[in-house]
Amino acid sequence: MTWEAWVAIGALVLAGCAVVIAVVVLRRLRELRLKVAADAAAAEGDASDAEPAEPRLVAFIANPSKPDVAAARGEILRATAEIGLTTPLWLETTVEDPGVGQAREAVRRGADVVVVVGGDGTVRAVAEALTGTKVAMGIVPVGTGNLLARNLDLPLGDPAAALRIALEGSDRTIDVGWLRVLRDGSVEDDVTSPAERIAPGAQASRDHIFLVIAGVGFDAAMIADTDDNLKARVGWIAYFVSGIRHLHGRRLRVTVRLDGAPPETLRLRSLLVGNCGRLPGGLTLLPDALIDDGWLDVAAIDTRGGVAGWAQLFGEVVLQGVGVRTELPAKIGRIDHTRARTIHARFSSTEPVQVDGDIVGRACDVEARVEEGALVVRVARA
């Protein structure tokens, strides 16, 4: 075995140890945060028992394909009755409408709060309809990634606690991101006007909301290739299994323009644009991202040197999640951070595109923008 192979193995072992340590620490911190949030919500609940809340209309939008939703419905209806709410609306998503139409219907019927019972796709759809309305969105997370719920420190695996926060928590205003496919690879011209770059078809020119992270390249290819059956059995770990199959993919060439500044040409594996940066497994991909600062955080991820480069990159991500950053020169695995309010990226090839873990197609020309303070969400009381 060559010394390069031994170095790669050693790097993988060190990265694995770092992951284990970071996950344990982050889980302990998260448990403490959740306990504080649960105690605060329970105390608020006791106060509401003494002084019944004024009746208000709550709408629940549920994804019936999630196995926990059917059992949760009875518990939810009992809980709303116990705190003196009027009979809530219960609306279910469909394949044709994953939640946008249901959320608009809830707003039309006067709902004060719209609670999502589902995963990231349902959360995105409901958020799209609620953006700009000032109607609060609560979340009872029952999905695989539960990305926004993680970044809002909502309880995972405890629907009762999440429901209590959705009904009695505090309102918080957050930013949302929008990604538009300007060119999907089917148009071969080389025009420069954004209006001319829009490819034919409504899907190509549609704005896609994202609340956590959008990406082009390796991350989207990994998501697109994830086995649904495996994801149902092992959850978010299925994404890592898929990622292994793409470790030896080619580097991409992309020209990036931030906020109208001169364009810069890069070689990378993934271009990520984030509103916030916490991922499953205790990983924080964008440590400086704040969900309500009016900025999008941009990460250019690149690796060279095969497995060793990916091992170094993985170690970088783990360490930055616990507040440690390395500035070693000539790194073979790196993640470069910046931020902007608008981003335009043109790739030399057509690549998969994802928003919050949902594949929205393939593109070679995209742009993203932030809409500051556009969405109200329910979080635990401080």
UniProtKB/TrEMBL annotation:
The keyword Nuclease does not apply. Keywords: ATP-binding, Kinase, Lipid biosynthesis, Lipid metabolism, Membrane, Nucleotide-binding, Phospholipid biosynthesis, Phospholipid metabolism, Transferase, Transmembrane, Transmembrane helix. Its cofactor is Mg(2+). Gene3D superfamilies: 2.60.200.40, Probable inorganic polyphosphate/atp-NAD kinase, domain 1. The chain crosses the membrane at residues 6-26. SUPFAM superfamilies: NAD kinase/diacylglycerol kinase-like. One of its GO terms (molecular function) is kinase activity. Pfam families: DAGK_cat, YegS_C. InterPro entries: ATP-NAD_kinase_N (IPR017438), Diacylglycerol_kinase_cat_dom (IPR001206), Lipid_Phosphate_FormReg (IPR050187), NAD/diacylglycerol_kinase_sf (IPR016064), YegS/DAGK_C (IPR045540). Residues 53-185 form the DAGKc domain. Belongs to the diacylglycerol/lipid kinase family. This is NAD(+)/NADH kinase. It comes from Cellulomonas chengniuliangii. The lineage of its organism: Bacteria, Bacillati, Actinomycetota, Actinomycetes, Micrococcales.
